[in-house]
C-alpha cells in the first residue's frame, strides 16, 4: 500500500473513530504532501515523501520543546500524540548500535582521517540513514569516530 493510500485509509478510520487529533494530523500530512507535489510539479517518489514526513516530525519535536519551556502541558500531550501519528508513517528507526556501525563503515568508505573530513563523511552518510536516524545523533557519532 502506498503512503497516500495509507493516509486515506487512516483518515477514514479517524473519522469513524471520531479521533480529532489523529484526523487533524493525518490531514496536515496529506496537505503537506499535496503542497510538495504542487511545488515540485510531479508525483512524489518515496524519498520525497520521506523528506516531507521528516519535516512534519521535526516541526512537532520542536513544538514539544517550546511547549515544555512554556510549561504548556496540555499542548505537550496533544503534540506528542500528533508526533506518534507522524512516526507511524516513518521507516523503522535505527538503533544506536546499527547507526554506529553505518557511521564506522562510512568513515572507512570515504577514507576519513580527521576532523577536516567531517563534511565528506556526513555527505556520504546522510543518504544512507535518511529518515531512519536523527541527524544530530549521527553528527555526534561521526565526530566521535573522527577524534
TrEMBL record:
Species this chain originates from: Lactobacillus hamsteri DSM 5661 = JCM 6256
Alphabetized Pfam families for the sequence: YqeY (PF09424)
InterPro entries given in the database record: Asn/Gln_tRNA_amidoTrase-B-like, GatB_Yqey_C_2, YqeY/Aim41, YqeY/Aim41_N
Gene3D superfamilies: 1.10.10.410, Uncharacterised protein YqeY/AIM41 PF09424, N-terminal domain
Xref: SUPFAM superfamilies: GatB/YqeY motif
MF annotations from Gene Ontology: carbon-nitrogen ligase activity, with glutamine as amido-N-donor
Entry superkingdom: Bacteria
Stated name of the protein: GatB Yqey family protein
Amino acid at each position: 500500500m502506498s503512503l497516500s493510500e495509507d493516509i486515506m485509509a487512516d483518515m477514514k478510520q479517524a473519522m469513524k473513530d471520531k479521533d480529532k487529533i489523529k484526523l487533524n494530523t493525518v490531514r496536515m500530512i496529506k496537505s503537506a504532501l499535496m503542497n510538495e507535489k504542487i511545488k515540485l510539479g510531479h508525483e512524489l517518489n518515496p524519498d520525497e515523501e520521506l523528506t516531507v514526513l521528516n519535516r512534519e516530525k521535526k516541526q512537532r519535536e520542536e513544538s514539544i520543546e517550546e511547549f515544555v519551556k512554556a510549561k504548556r502541558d496540555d499542548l505537550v500531550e496533544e503534540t506528542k500524540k500528533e508526533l506518534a501519528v507522524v512516526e507511524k508513517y516513518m521507516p523503522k528507526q535505527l538503533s544506536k548500535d546499527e547507526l554506529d556501525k553505518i557511521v564506522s563503515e562510512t568513515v572507512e568508505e570515504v577514507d576519513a582521517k580527521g576532523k577536516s573530513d567531517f563534511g565528506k563523511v556526513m555527505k556520504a552518510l546522510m543518504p544512507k540513514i535518511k529518515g531512519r536516524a536523527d541527524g544530530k545523533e549521527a553528527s555526534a557519532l561521526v565526530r566521535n569516530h573522527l577524534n
